[in-house]
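Practice set, problem 2.
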Amino acid sequence: MPNKYKAWSMEEHILAFNLYCKIPFGRQHSRAPEVIALAKLLGRSAGSVALKLNNFSRLDPELKARGIRGMAHGAKGEVQTWRAFEDSPEALAFESERLLAQFAGRKLEEMAEIDERDLPAEGLERDRVVRVRVNQYFFRATVLAAYDYTCCITGLAIPELLVASHIVPWARDAKQRMNPRNGLCLNALHDRAFDRGLMFIAGDMTVRFREELLRNQPRASGLDWLLGYEGKPVSMPRKFRPDPDLLARHATSS
């Protein structure tokens, strides 16, 4: 029987944070399959894990501003884990995935859905590539979960057609690579337009396309599904809302 009085280790806090990032806000409860699965790995009750997830909410500035809180006095490990992610997100994300694979008794590459046939031979280069792929997997899972696996522009909810789009590109700002507030959940077409600077999100959180695109592409050309969202509001996630400063950087640099 799970021991609900057992103190949480730092490893367990990191694993709970991993799930906090990768589960939609509305599923942070003891009946969610993901919560039950982690509880089984940790030898804890699903209620204990759910409480830990909700305690992480008290550290999220966006949720705190909206009056969403966990226990008033949570554990020190929650604060330490949150700050570790803020200080070194790539390191904490990778460690959380490594621990998850270890506790599950599975290979890290398998957990992160990496095709090992695409990897270099064993050595430092393989380790580097695996680390990048694992963190990209974590970022995608976090952003898509924040938006409940739904495109924030069109409402499309087919995960295979969705992209965790970086607002400030991966290669342009290393500090923002793993920041979930540097992400949008977009369908593949709007992601391409966003990435190429043909589309941006204005300060009022509406979709905007470049004037030259609107002017030079008649709707008869079959672009209605792309351009038809001009001026429409973006659906906001319940956690990890996009950073307005990063959206402004994208809008001015595209």
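Problem 2, part (b): a different protein.
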Amino acid sequence: MKNVIAVGHPRLARRGTIHLVLALVFAIFVAGCGDDSSTSSDPASESQSSSSVTLSEVEGSSSSVGREKSSSSVKSGDDSQKSSSSKKGNSSSSNGEGNSSSSVDKTRSSSSGYVLRDSLCSSEYEGGTKYISQYGITYRCINGHWVLQSSSSTVSSSSSSKYYDMSRLFVSENDYSYGEFTDPRDGQVYKTISYELGYEILDSITYFAQNLNYGKMIPGGTQMTDSTKFCYDDDPWYCENGFGGLYTWATVMNFPAACDSFAIGSAKCPVEYDLMRSKIPYFQNKFNYVMHQGICPEGWHVMNDEEWSMVMKGSGTRNGASYLGAVLWGSGNQRGFSLLPAGVLKTQLIDSPEKNIKYANIDVFANHWIPGDYNGSLVRDSMASYGNAVLITQDRIDQTVGAKKVNGLSIRCTKDY
């Protein structure tokens, strides 16, 4: 009976098994506590590890075509001097410098696009930082590579830097051919596009096929002076890759800075447009056709209201970006105009003069200054001065809008005729 009870009773057998399992678990736990190579249970370490993984996932989650900056000049540097915030052990292999050799960090996948970490940066950015506000991430250009410096788990509601593949900016489904113009002031080369209009008084017209990019970059909110510009997110990449500079209204018109705050013809802004500058009699003394050089190079002028209408000639509808757009929106760059939704620099609140420096609406719309004060229904701040602008969205173009003159908008130039 003892043998039967000791060996064959199921309840006692299970109890013995449980005791054995508990003993084994305890032994493993004790061994683990004494093993220095085990994973640390320190909360800070866990936080860093978790943050690193999340950061990689966030960086690779963008739907943008690409984030890596194009570079023609890169400092190779000494490999031993490269630094990175990536920690060993975050992936199955390491290059010995603390940088993960995972394809997530260094290469492009079909689903995620480029990650910025360890991507190349050109020599002109060396030592500079890049802040991606959407993710609270800061990179520094070190020895030709973007190296992660810091990150925050807080997602900012302000603008977000994204880098795009601009290789098809001047590709048109209608095979438009482009000319070139070199600005003698700084040697910058612009693509130009010409259209035959069929008008007896004007057979063709030539435009910049990209936004003006003249001047030295200054931080958003800084007082503009001669030969200065803003770049979206205070990042020169945008200015240099087709988006061009953003300028206040007075800077575009080459008027005194006070004209950003006061109306044309006032005591503080005693200027006027030359409505007789055009050589075509029909266009003279008509404000919509004014040829005002402003910030454009000699022989060119700020694109006016009627010229925006001319570039839409043949569209059939006022469908904006779907006719003029390229790369980020539109429908095959049908017109060859290579329009980009370059966003704006807002320097004040909409309905008050209170300062509020913010880059916004890249990917959303293109907003270009045209000559003239605006006095329409969009005025929200009675203390501000507004300038005329053209607003282009994905499905429309509106030439009856205004914006605070102190804001930074894009500009296109037209060749004099």
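Answer key, part (b): Residues 1-115, 151-160 have pLDDT under 50 and may be disordered. Residues 72 and 300 are 30 Å apart (CA to CA).
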